[in-house]
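Re: the 550-residue chain
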Amino acid sequence: MELIDQHIKKIMEGCKARAREAGLSFDDETLEYIVTNRDLLELSPKAMIPTLYDYWVHDVEVLKEKGKYELYPDNPYETVINTRPAISFYNDNNPDWLNVMIFYHVLAHIDFFNNNLFFRHTWDYDFCGQALSDKRVIANLRSEKGRWVDYVIEFTRGIDNLVGYHDELARMNRFPLTILPKRLNYYFDVFLQSDKKVNITEYVKEIERYNDCVKKEGASGEKTFFTEVNKQYPEFEAIYEKSLKKKSADKLDLIQFLMENSVFLNREENKWMKSVMQIVRKTSLFLQPQIRTKIINEGWASYWHETLFLQDDRIKGHEVDFARVNAAVTSQPRVGLNPYALGMRLFYDIEEMTDKGKYSIEFEQLLDADKRKLYNAHTGKGRDFIFNVRENFSDFMLINTFVDQDFVTRNKLFVAGRRLNKDKMVWEYYIKSRNVKAYRQMLLDILYHPPHITIDPEKSKHNALYLIHHFEGKPLVSDFISNTMIGIEYLWGGPVHLETNEVVRVTPTQKKNLATRPSVRVYEEEEKPEIQWRRVLYTMENRKMTKKPI
């Protein structure tokens, strides 16, 4: 692995100038390395962070990927990581014209890292340097504690998908208390909604009353407002004061809760484990936004590498080569999902729809299909709008907001089904649905969605930890429950209970014959089977797991 030479660096600097002119923003300093495919195989298990701490699973992944590479060698074009400065890696045999295209793709990624609000908590430090420091800490502990370090890493990594990522974002983006005082926050966000459970009409009236007080009396308006509140709710001040003293346990994710409340971890001889757990948690928090923005991030980069490269005079003589490479990256597969292709098409579609003014009430009120097709308000705001989308959206928000029936129809998208041909004994793929609800649901099912698990302090008694899985239609993977709970029991130092849902029975739906003649079979679209769930309680005590229905 070595830095790119001055000739290639000059190409990169030229791409930076053109990208900035188009509106992309990124730091001046970047690092570009030339690597072989085998170098990339060794970096991939570490999420391309060269300085990430060593762990035995990384070595296993490297061996597995090397075995795959021997059978199916591939040639990745680039990869880029969100560090300060940004580091990118390139294949060692790329021609200059291909590097131009790839550099535009990488610069769009860096622009996304630096401006998308889901990366807000990564902006203020260099994770590559932090990871190197963490790696040294773990290496020193491993030389002193031996294999116990790897046990703590493994047990913590078993629950590192439960880190409070959104709580971290909320903390980073919270308004200053001088703008939104704690008392006002508590009254509107907690007291009225959770304690009093007022209806929406009463809630809006309270907001209007507050605005009137501030408008009429200025700085003293809030004091007047709470004078009336105390008359209506005499208990408010006492409840509010109590809330200030009460430590909110629900703001701690599971790793934090264990570090703060485990008697075992807080023994003097075990406190070193908390350093390891904090490193694993910090690494997970850093990687969380990349997992949640795969489609929008790759779509943004693909949109810009195509847009900027087609305007670049260095494309001359390589139009066919570019078309071949670009098609391989951004073509829409008939079965499965290509995040590059879907994300890029969404950005082109959003830009066009905004330019034509189709995200408006006027357009939505049109019922005539021909008028909707020809509608064009010539707003010229499409480019500005996609920059706004880049800043504020994740994959989940992008899909729910912009994947509509028109988009599915225009791009000839569909949900593919699979059935067994019993005559030929092969699987056949067929078009199952072209409906946007089915297609959107398929996309949402693919997205990363960790389970929502919280600690119940009321039931965590007698040195037992009680976890509640808030069921969202998907059960926990049963194969992982036992090993994960063993790890939690070790870190907690006592019994662990987990309340969750599991499948009791699956009832397949019966298809009805829709044909008018008995000899003809025409079936309606297959429906989902009915699933019966039950609530169960897993208990891990002394490394033995039991289960009982609740």
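The first helix runs from residue 6 to 22.
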